[in-house]
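Q: I'm writing up a methods section and want to include an example of the input and output format. Could you take the sequence below and give the corresponding predicted structure tokens, formatted cleanly so I can copy it straight into the document?
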Amino acid sequence: MDQSEPFQNNIIYPILSLFTGGGFLDLGFINLGFEVAQAVEIEPNFIKSYNFALHNYFCKSTNQYIVSSKINHYPIERSIDVSNDLEQKKLVMKHEGICGLIGGPPCQDYSVGGKNAGIEGDKGKLINSYLTLVKKIKPKFLFFENVEGLYKVKRHRAAFDKFVEALEDAGYTVFHDILNVINYGHPQDRPRIALVAFRRDIISKIKKAGYIIEKDNSLLKGDRNDKYAFRWPKPTHENVKKMNWPKKMPFGSEINLNKPIANYELCVASVFDDLNDSFPNQNEFFNPRSYRFFEIAEGDTNRKSFKRLHRMKYSPTVAYGNNEVHLHPTKARRLSVREALRLQTVPDTYVLPKEVPLTHKFKLISNGVPTAKAELIATEIRRTLLIYDNLTK
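A: Here is the clean output for your methods example:
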């Protein structure tokens, strides 16, 4: 989120953002001193949303990289299909050797709740476009995120393993693990495969200086060893699902919020309670009514659709497509745009334009990487880059 504390060192790292969507991932990297030299997106409504929201964010941000004009915002000028050979050539010509490449192709073909078409699907094939650009641009690092189904579903895992092998063959040292934003203190259960890779010449330089290339993810997340060349963010909450969470209760029930509640930061109420109609995008939600809006119990999230969140528990994965409807804990309606953005840890200074249809707004939100998680990963990537920079002075 916005950082008002003075930032350390003035190094700005340029990055290319692919499959940008609404730019939640971009925000996390921007806040840590990475400048998005170009954001690439094909969907016109996403482009309109990105340009409007990022402009507003830059105007109102207290982040010192932005306030000091170290980092600038470059709007998306046109729709780009990254699977197009000509477009790929243009991107390579413009960004060859850029510091970083971030983003992940649309996940529907690898999602258990989606089409499940895998690498053969129209969206699934985009992983090859991503790989082609990495090989030709040869960034110092890359960050890739996708649904855990790409890693855990047997038929998709083969495609992921080939992807990792291809990156290694292209000269990268690869780290990957399943990371869930809920383990970092935010009320959403969103397990995703996270992959970070550094060019091997960078890792070799760091290794020669005495740093350790550790691949055990339990150590990379739990051990804050300063000699690791790269580390994952350290989780703040373990075994969240085994905690003593409340059971379902009738819609409209009273809860005593005056007494201290353990792990309140993991509860939906922690990000909803201060919202009112004055917040941007808070009055935007689908209006169609159903008797189920009044009958589904608070905390009943096991059904396929019409899941009602519980105030004193975390939200299921923010994913509002394929007829999946999430209901407000205490109101007979669906979640608002701002409530969904809050669950995705997007700051309130990020505002979506009124003219973009709700369907596109919720799809954009569902596809995004939680900004707080992006910040944590960007912090660790920046640490590795600074180690390398200090060695090459």
